[in-house]
Design goal:
Blueprint lengths: L9 H8 L1 H22 L7 H5 L1 H18 L10 H17 L6 H29 L2 H33 L13 H24 L7 H8 L9 H29 L6 H22 L6 H10 L3 H32 L8 H34 L2 H17 L10 H15 L2 H7 L7 H8 L1 H21 L5 H18 L5 H8 L1
Helix pairs in contact: 2-6, 2-7, 2-8, 2-13, 2-14, 4-6, 4-18, 4-19, 5-6, 5-8, 6-18, 7-8, 7-14, 7-17, 10-11, 11-12, 13-14, 13-19, 13-20, 14-15, 14-16, 15-16, 15-17, 15-20
Length: 506
């Protein structure tokens, strides 16, 4: 890939980011309505976090793989990232049409799994796209543009059910128990169209820079793809394989002996699988196959840049809070403020509709905040900007506990929207400057681990916390999310933002 990147115009950055508008249509519909779909199909509230695990588990597997192979893809006409944009958009659009028509709970969980994988196939290369196409001085703007489109897409998608109800008179209550209202189904159909259309706009309106001659040679020659210090990495991988497998087994045995909730097995199984990947990678090195993708994926994970490690902690607590909000806001608002747990009641559906609107508002706030984040970062720092934004989000989440009148929830979403804009842009801008260009896609995919791992932890622990700590009162899950966001804010001040130093001293 060419190292010198010219500054792009506003409309070039607009075109290369436009696909995020549709991608967020899909994610917003998923975040605002999945719990509603699951509860409509008979899911127990205590098991919602477990059913949601399909989404982060899919991202954990798909994103680094897509990133790794998109780094190594080049087509004279279609480029490097754009083939992945297109394939993901086609598959995601199909699953968005299937989701609201799921006849059973387990089909809905399965469709969520496929949907999330498909959206991730398109979304992950978009993050690397900014690093590919923009010079360091424009990357904060590039990621902020993505946040802007995420906000616009999410606010429209979140309000779609209410738009169909209020503007077109389409019912928000299903005629038959166990089915979804037409307002929800039509919203998913619109989301499918928007995702496909906007991603294809980016595919056909943006051209990518070709790789350098040295880069093309690496793509062709497997010997050039072997890792350095093979014996050292082989020994290290075997040791870590044994350690991860042992810890995973101990956790699984402990859960079995104490008879804890079944979802806690996910933690043990996840560590065992992580250990197996290390063992297989070590075996490949031993057999002279150090050029294989799995070896590079495991090796690069173990040698990630310092900035990425620091951001990992920030991401963990940020996304733990977000996942708690996405899963339990519907349950908290309907039970704590609207005093209903019956999905067939008008009060419950009014509360659930309000959650969709609230999610739309925080995404709208995020779209506006995204325009100002580069300016604030310019006059302070990206670390301070992220600190302030996350602190606003923590206060917004915790404030749900003190609200009895639904009107005041709109103000809570202002803080959440500011934090959401920053979460979607500032960490990626800080990260991109610390990554080698030839591994941009892979490391952006690995960075998703620190979005997915907290979601898996949340999916395994939130149900336990709800049952054993909070006596089934989901409002306290949101308060816990606020505390987690505050911890992330403090940790963001410790990040080594090297790229920012280069920009400011250039």
């Amino acid at each position: 890939m060419s190292q010198h990147k010219p500054r792009l115009s506003f409309w070039q950055i607009w075109n290369m980011s436009f696909g995020f508008l549709g991608i967020q249509f899909g994610f917003a519909l998923q975040n605002a309505n999945t719990s509603r779909i699951f509860e409509t199909l008979g899911a127990d509230t205590a098991n919602l976090a477990l059913y949601w695990l399909a989404a982060p588990l899919t991202g954990l597997l798909v994103q680094p793989i897509v990133g790794y192979y998109s780094d190594r893809t080049w087509h004279a006409k279609w480029g490097r990232r754009r083939p992945f944009f297109a394939v993901g958009a086609i598959l995601a659009s199909i699953t968005l049409c299937l989701m609201p028509n799921s006849p059973t709970l387990w089909m809905a969980v399965g469709v969520l799994w496929i949907m999330d994988a498909s959206i991730n196939i398109s979304m992950e290369p978009f993050r690397a796209f900014v690093g590919d196409m923009l010079p360091p001085s424009q990357r904060t703007t590039g990621f902020a543009m993505q946040s802007f489109f995420i906000g616009i897409g999410a606010i429209v998608a979140s309000f779609l059910p209410s738009i169909f109800k209020d503007w077109f008179g389409i019912s928000n209550v299903a005629d038959v128990a166990g089915t979804l209202p037409d307002s929800i189904r039509y919203s998913y159909y619109v989301g499918a169209f928007m995702l496909f259309a906007t991603v294809m706009w980016t595919v056909f309106s943006t051209k990518e820079y070709p790789p350098t001659e040295a880069g093309e040679e690496k793509l062709r020659n497997r010997e050039h793809r072997k890792i350095d210090d093979e014996a050292k990495h082989q020994s290290s991988f075997y040791r870590k394989a044994g350690l991860f497998i042992l810890i995973g087994l101990l956790i699984s045995v402990f859960v079995y002996m104490i008879d804890l909730e079944n979802e806690l097995y996910v933690l043990g199984i996840g560590l065992i699988m992580f250990g197996i990947f290390h063992g297989v990678a070590a075996s490949f090195i031993q057999r002279g196959k150090a050029y294989l993708g799995l070896v590079h994926i495991v090796k690069d994970f173990n040698t990630m840049p310092k900035t990425m490690i620091q951001l990992a902690y920030v991401q963990f607590f940020s996304w733990f809070a977000l996942f708690a909000m996405w899963i339990y806001t519907t349950s908290a608002v309907t039970s704590y403020i609207f005093h209903s747990t019956d999905p067939t009641s008008q009060a419950y559906n009014d509360g659930a509709d309000l959650v969709g609107k609230l999610f739309g508002v925080y995404n709208g706030i995020a779209a506006l905040a995204a325009l100002f984040l580069p300016i604030i970062a310019k006059y302070t720092s990206r670390r301070m900007t992220h600190f302030i934004a996350l602190l606003c989000g923590g206060v917004g989440l915790a404030s749900f506990y003190f609200i009895s009148d639904p009107f005041w929830l709109w103000f809570s979403m202002i803080g959440i929207g500011i934090s959401w804009a920053s979460i979607l842009s500032i960490p990626y801008a800080m990260l991109s400057g610390s990554l080698p260009a030839e591994k941009m896609g892979y490391y952006m995919g690995v960075f998703n681990f620190f979005i997915v791992i907290p979601q898996i932890v949340a999916g395994t622990l939130l149900g336990v916390m709800l049952t054993h700590l909070f006596n089934g009162q989901s409002i306290f899950i949101l308060v816990s999310g606020g505390v987690s966001m505050g911890i992330a804010a403090l940790l963001s001040l410790k990040v080594d933002d090297r790229d920012e130093v280069v920009i400011k001293t250039a």
